Amino acid sequence: MNVDAILRQIGEFGPYQKVIYVILNLLGVTHGTRMLMAVFLLYTPRHRCAIPTYPNDTYEVQSDYHGHLIQHYIPNNTKDGEDSPYDQCRIFHTNGSDGGVVLAKTGCQNFVYDTSVFENTAVVEFDMVCDDALLASHSQMSQMAGFLFGVLFFGAIGDKWGRKVSLCLAVVIYVAAGLGLSWTPQAGYAVFVFIRFVNGASSAGAYTSVAVLSVEMVGPSKRLWVGTLIHWTFAIGGMVLDLIGYFIRDWALINIVGTAPAILALSFWWIIPESPRWLAKHGRMDEAEKVLRKIAKYNGKTFPENWREFHGTNSKDSSNGNANGGVVKSIDQSDDMSKANGGVVKSIDQSDDRGKHSDVIRSSKENGIGDVAKPVNQAQTSAGGTLRNFSKMFTYRVLLIRNIVLFLNWFAVAMAYYGLSFTAGQLSAGSVFINFLLSVSMDFPATGICLLLLDRWGRRRLHTVAMVMGGTSSLLGVLTTMVASDDLQWITVVVAMVGKLGSSMGFILVYIYSSELFPTTVRSAGMGASSAFARLGSILASYVQQWSLQMGGNLGKSLPLLVFGAFSLVAGLLTFVLPETLHKDLPDTVEDALVFGKDPEKDEHQDPVKVVEVYTVGDVQIEMTKLETANAHSNHTPVPDDLPSSLCANAK
Questions:
Q1: Measured distance CA(468)–CA(571) in Å, rounded
Q2: pLDDT digits (tens, 9 = 90+) for 323-350
């Protein structure tokens, strides 16, 4: 069954698909809320040691006598730029129950917290401060580890048992674990950490399933925008979280309200159809036909009764194509054939006498022209062959350097992206809510800039600019934090937001760039390894945040900007050693990767032609058209050509 050919007849992105797309992406919003909730959930308020002789002690001064006890028991904070007037982790040890002679400064086990920003956070619930401050980072590490596990686990379920099954299973777990997190203080810290792991896994599973289903429900010409706009839901989720946190200052209630909308997604089992591509691929033709007929009905289109014939080329139309002066090669563009040939399907109309005016060739029912497929040895794409080929990527010096640079970029961009979000409340000016809102809003211009310049500037140049811009801006924030007066600290916020814009662009670009640099035979393994380095970066970001809090003062506020900026700047500059992929045939084997990019001028003087490229992603085809040279074809889609559903979504 040629699902794309049928969708061209019944509507590639008609009213029915638009409704399904909106419904699915409401769940995508909750993913952004969950992944960024640590900003409020793990917010560390100002605190100090509890006075042992005052049972109802609070951070706020209750009376003159209470103020006298605070002055007697609590050392003053001497760090420059520190918000708290008190030493947050030490208390004077005296020789009397009501005071007396001060003997020494010691640590303490009981704390009181400032409630002016949040009435309660998980940090307060579990006293994750001072000597136990890293417990907060450990819990964040657990969620990020769960994210990586969830992408792989639920992706495998989606490939084997269906996208809808994977989605609904992830939603059930997401709702149960999400709501259950608010009651973990009664069960203890270990349970809190475990539930956060489940939160990350289920949220990643739901988001991946939403991304795959959204893309597989639409036709080739609409798939690029559909796949890109999905990522805006992450930023929208952050904005919704900011609004919830502003009006609700208790972490448990914030968590419940942020999770509750996902309860509606439990109805997806009865509302959302299974992917017709997945059904057709697994031989369930009757069910696939039923879904496609439903799409046709609500789109106001007539379902083609000869749909079973939509699987090959039309000799008559092919002859017409040749008569028009085009040099046309064709193969059967069925799903099985495209997958057998490595998933890369390309068509070129290279008319000798018309040059740049040659017609666009499409593999469709109405044009009847097949596509030129670039075959890949199937032995190289088996599980064992993939592992062997991936190991080769580290045995050649040029490929080893390329992999190190790519992995460093994934590590740096994820660390900066999440780190600048987590530390929004630690900037020297503005409230945590305003700074966080500005931070998550950077995703919108970042996506627009990438879509506008990606095929104009090229991958390498645009990614380098994004990373260098983000890194330099963050490093400038160190200078303004340390030197500028309080009245000028708004400059720190501005440069930090420019840094976040750079990391947001970098996250989009590194996914596209990496998927094009890894050869076809190891692309899945390469992207999986890249995603793992991204998780490591996001994990380290939470530890940098905690170290900065423990350090305190202006130096502590500068530490995150220094670390994130330095990594981004170095990773961006090292990108210059990578080859450009725009307007290039992408490597299929490790041997292709070895020579890829060594002759960048080889296609410069070729006459341009119009090229239609149809990329197969599992059961999905993405179709793009570009005017380019005869021997240079660019990959325009952020979804690489042979990834399973577990890696189809841009894994933020």
A1: 8
A2: 333 333 333 333 333 333 333 333 333 3
